[in-house]
Design a protein that fits this description.
heterodimer, A: alpha/beta, 19 helices, 7 strands, 54% helix, elongated, B: six-stranded mixed β-sheet, 42% helix
Chain lengths: 398, 391
Amino acid sequence: MEINIRSRIIDEKIDALNVLAEIKVGDYLQIAKYIIDDNEMQRKKVKSSKTVYSLLRNDLKDGCTIPPIFLAVRKEAIDGEEQEFLSKVTDDEIKQSIRDKQLIILDGLQRTHQMLALEDELKKSGENEALEKFYGRTLRLEIYVGINKIGILYRMLTLNTGQTPMSIRHQIEILYQDYVTDTKIPGVSLLREVDGARGIGIGNYKFSDIVDGFQSYLEKNELSIDRATLLDDIKSLEKLAKKGQDVELFQQFLKVFHKFMEKINQVSNDWDFTKTDYSAEYTHPFGRNVANFFLRPQVVTAFGAAIGVLEENDVITDLDELSDELDNLNLGGEPAEVYQEFLKNLEFIRSTSKKIGNSQRRYFYHFFKALLNVHGENKLDVYKAIKKARQMYNVEFL
Amino acid sequence: MSLKFSRIDDSEPLSLDKVRFQPGVNKFFLSSTQEPGDEFYCDFCFEKNPSYSHLKDSQFDVYLFHNSAFAANDIYRISDSKSRRETNRGRLGFLIPIQSLINAEHDYGDKEHFSPYAYHAIRILLTDKNTLPYKILDVPTSLFVDLEAIYGENTHVLILHKPYIKIWEKGHAIKFKIEYFLPCLWSYGYMSIEQSNFNVLYKDKEHGNGVEKPNDGVIELTSIAPDLRADPFILNLFTSFLYSQKHELIRFHLLYQVIELLIEKVFQSELESIIQDFGNNINNFYDIREKLTKVANEKSRITKLFNKYCIGQNALLEALKVSCNELLKEVNTEYEQSSPPLAVYKTRSLVFHSFRSLPAEYDGKLKVINDDFEALIIATINSFKYPEISI
């Protein structure tokens, strides 16, 4: 496999190394197939238009130049101290990580699929000469080598080089997929859909829900996420990207969420809906135990949005500090009484709201805003935050 | 028939004519046979009950209605007591907000009998089998088919099970037509969505006028009276006029037109009866002349309408009398009327002939009159019946 490194530039904004490389199409397709097969999220094809993309396939056959494909080196591929690595990594080490397929495709997935489709077409029609010519064409790759994923996300959005923009959710999923293997947070693991719902509990969270929560944190919006929406406020992402140069934001988010889950579980004293004396009053309780209650997607996204807003308003300056503050979380009353108040409010929402899911998210957004506002009167008091949330919900909706 | 999506770079829309359900992931997948490749999806939030797997889309009829004042939990069983059998307990189907098809957090979310209705309603919406009106959106880059965006966030799906409709038809000895029930559904705030009004209703975010919701989660389907089913004005009233005309004066005028229509029928019926009487006893001339004079009088015909042709509406008549008298007393204390027909007639005369004497802020009181009037009119057109002729 022949790979030529043509240029290396440090992107000082996002602290990543940008490498321009050239590779033969045939070699790239071998890597691409592996990357796509290895990663279920990369398998998703974005919309195809019969007109534009059949034109592209014909142009590829005729030898057109394709814009560079953007790749990123996967986290586990980087050895040692990241900063040192970036300045000292050799061309050979970069080539090796390409050969070892330690990559994810950030942009160019559509083009990659069309190239694979053309390869398939030429093989089936027996056009061996055309196939060899196609394999022998030169393709440019731009490879980001760096661990600041928010920075990469920011760069992708500002450059917007894709013909079909990838949704921010999809980009987040791709960038942080390595957390499924290892969150680097003791006692925390992320589960995929295929791993099933049974394992979900304190410390075992659904990857897709955490991604939704993280996206809500970035967008400061808890509402049902339109998966096609791009981040509107690039400026706020820029602010986070600056922050993300020193810390891994996704990991910080996951840490503080896990801390909240641990603490709420601890102070709730094994609250179990089925063992309460009001269980007959609710045919559709929001949750039956602490994990079941707080691990619903509506709650995770509301959590993300609330801390995003509190951070934007400088009420919270650092998620790690918030994690420490959570040591002082208290229920504010007996578990049975507190959760009854919660259930009462959520039942009201369920029976009167037009869009139940959105209304629940909004309620929990107000709950977390009140709870985690470390300067507020309801600070870290669950019972007070429940009541405040209902007040705010009434103002908005009634 | 298939859902279509528009494309920026192609004048030909993308037609998703293949719809399949994948049980393991509880999703519907849509694709195009002409252009295979991308598969679009729509979630199914309920448990698909295998005991209903024998049911087919062709065994259901789906109609769309608009109502912007609702909660996602406002799901109603459509019922008819005459169709009550062991199999269906009088149920013909369900009226479901589209919000409640894409979210299971409501009282029917885990109900066994509801799931097949939800399943087939969604399939019919995704396959466009009934060619219902919808908004053609751009091809979704996320591959997610959003029913709410396609059909409208204030849209409600009326899904009826055809075998139960057959039972209804047997019991009522007529063919079932949804048009017969539009006034009944209107009385609960639901307006029929047609191709002609879809775009207007799609954008309508206004909250309704506070109509009373059905009791106990059931809508008892009541039909327009047989003698009025063919009348185009009555149908247009509930598919167009009452929705598009918001001004209270026009609303009163439209509603009173129904009274005019009905008292014309009363006049014809009474006249026939008088002529027959005259034919039977030619010496009764002076009596007959007096009857003729009386039946020509509008006030008298309105009284006869509610005493002989639409009986049993006393509560609604009383409520209307009270609201009419509120306005009449404000104009002149001596205008207060003792009976509902007189109160309606006096209000009509005031509005049509002495508009100038109405107080400047008549709107509020006229709205209360119209709300009561509308309820009475709906009950009247559903109960109108020519009296039995005694031989």
